[in-house]
Amino acid sequence: MSEVIARPGGELASRPLHFFWVVDCSGSMYGEKIGTVNNAIQSVLPEMIDEAADNPNAQLMIRTLKFSTGASWVTPSPVKVEEYVWEDLDAAGVTDLGKAFELLSAQLSVEEMGQRALPPVIVLLSDGQPTDDYKKSLDKFQKLPWAKKAVKIAISIGQDADDDVLLEFVGNRELVLQANNAKMLAKMIKWASTAVSAVSSGASNTSDPGPAVDNSTPNSSTADSGSSGSGADAGGGNAPLILDMDNIPSPDIDAGDVW
Does residue 119 contact residue 145 with C-beta atoms inside 8 Å? Predict the structure, then answer.
């Protein structure tokens, strides 16, 4: 009988890639802002499915977390992008961003993410300033191995958004995207949603360590998928995830058309 040699970490096909929407649903988002978020994410889902289909070695999993007075999961468990249905969000209350970081941190474990998961993609949308003591929760989040590996994008909605807080979260000013009207918000949501295919394709198709790329590189952002202890290297993919930033929509806005 011939001996079957198992590939370390198993087959590379369908490594889970977790995509998190973290959405500010405070009272200041009421009306056009939250309506634009609902419409934009709903309309971009078919494109996300198409992009994911081009990368058969990764299974895109979607979840939505909302925060206002407190925070809660809209999607209790990860859902395949092909099966994901967006639930329209309402807006009311304050901006308990720290509560959102607490819930997000609880999900960034090997048990929740899977042994062979790719580094996650986290997109945070907010239009104001946190009303709770978010720093302690953010510090805890940032120390997590999966958080260090994650590709993090923030969409700053309107002129009252606290960009310094969003920068603390993403760690890269180029990935704090400005959306000062409905048109720009829809464009930024589309870019953040569909750019995930570029993020996942490199690491999901290779088992060879890739060269490290400096996060200060003007047109790229990386998440290292090879650090030990998080489970991200269990599938053998040590190449950094590279996010192509050349096609980020311009934040230019029409005069007077500003939130």
Answer: no
> What DSSP string runs through 193-241?
HHTHHHHHHHHHT--SPPPP--TT-TTEEEE----TTSSTTTTS--SPE
pLDDT at 39 over 70: yes
**239 has pLDDT over 70:** no
Q: Is 140 left (phi over 0), alpha (psi -120 to 50) or beta?
A: alpha
pTM: 0.81
Confidence grade of residue 46 (pLDDT, cut at 50, 70, 90): very high
Residue-range domains of the chain with CATH: 15-244 (3.40.50.410)
Q: How far is CA 28 from the centre of its chain?
A: 22
Q: Residue 25: CB partners within 8 Å, gap ≥ 6?
A: 34, 66, 67, 68, 89, 90, 91, 92, 93
